[in-house]
Write a structure and sequence with these properties.
The protein is α+β, with helices and mostly antiparallel strands. The chain contains 11 helices and 8 strands.
Length: 315
């Protein structure tokens, strides 16, 4: 059920539109005896002339039940609903002047109410926030009569959205904690990082653009099957920041953008230099070469040593 209301000038045209036997039937009226649209308009005009200051002297309302409800409501139920709707708007239904007409020409049936704002003493009914008040009035009438409320549907959707967002926020936090756990083990390569994240129940899905370049990754929680951008889970899980942190692709499984290729090369060279320095100092640095399993990566260690010897000799 939807409730609408607004103040208007209240000319003859609105009476002619609402009060039409070809469109439906009259279901309720109060303090009116006219039969035709012009007679009802003129009758309300008499009372409206008691107030010469106001411009909008009529309130046009629509009470629209859900399509399914509208098809099964009886005349008595429609009259009761209309009265309850007006009372919810704090309208004196005994002394006010109004007429309610039920339009049935369309499947979505609805009630039009033409209400005279001017009382017998010439005072106006307040119309502050009348539109919002009508929405809530219709909601309360629907709840009272066990009918479908548009307002309740919107409320339920908002609650559902909030619950989804709350769960989404919790999942993002969980994914980031798994990322931190993997990074704490200090993986050197992207392949190692992705493999360890998979063990944590998080798979990374490559996002490839039209040029065949790796743009980034989407992450999927294997338990809930929820998927999102890696950077959406946390900015530090984005591809560029992972490379900036020192990780690099050991195998050429993906084509990278020029900028990322440079970062990848820099990270590879940095690890190579650290390996050489560690071996020279006979530290506990693992002797196993992380590049040994990657036929696609050229080992420049020997070339680097020759370059440094030449440089030292020149000095």
């Amino acid at each position: 059920m939807i409730g609408k209301a607004k103040s208007c000038v209240g000319g003859f045209s609105i009476f002619n539109y609402v009060i039409d036997d070809a469109k439906g039937i009259e279901i309720l009226r109060n303090n009116l005896c006219g039969e035709t649209p012009i007679e009802l308009f003129q009758e309300m005009k008499i009372m409206q002339n008691l107030n010469q200051k106001a411009t909008n002297k009529l309130i046009s309302m629509i009470l629209s039940p859900h399509v399914e409800d509208g098809e099964k409501l009886s005349l008595t139920q429609l009259q009761t609903m209309t009265n309850e709707f007006l009372k919810e708007l704090e309208i004196d239904v005994e002394n006010s002047q109004f007429i309610a007409f039920f339009h049935t020409e369309k499947r979505h049936r609805h009630i039009h109410i033409l209400f005279n704002r001017v009382a017998e003493n010439g005072k106006l009914l307040k119309d502050n926030h009348i539109g919002k008040l009508a929405q809530w009035a219709a909601h309360r009438v629907a709840k009272k009569n066990g009918l479908i409320s548009a307002k309740q549907i919107r409320i339920d959707k908002i609650v559902e959205t909030e619950q989804i967002q709350s769960g989404f926020k919790s999942l993002r936090k969980e994914l980031y904690l798994k990322h931190l756990n993997v990074m704490a083990a200090k993986p050197k390569t992207m392949e190692k990082y992705l493999s360890e994240m998979l063990k944590q129940g998080v798979s990374f899905i490559p996002t490839i653009n039209k040029q065949g370049i790796l743009q980034g990754f989407r992450v999927r929680d294997m338990e809930s099957h929820t998927e999102m951008k890696a950077s959406e889970a946390h900015r530090n899980m984005g591809l560029k920041i992972l490379l900036d942190s020192g990780l690099f692709f050991q195998d050429k499984n993906f084509d990278l953008s020029n900028a990322m290729v440079e970062i990848n090369k820099f990270n590879i060279q940095k690890v190579q230099e650290e390996t050489i320095i560690a071996e020279k100092r006979n530290t506990n640095f693992p002797s196993q070469n992380i590049f040994a399993f990657s036929p696609n990566i050229v080992d420049h260690t020997e070339d680097e040593l020759k370059r440094k010897r030449k440089k030292k000799f020149r000095r």
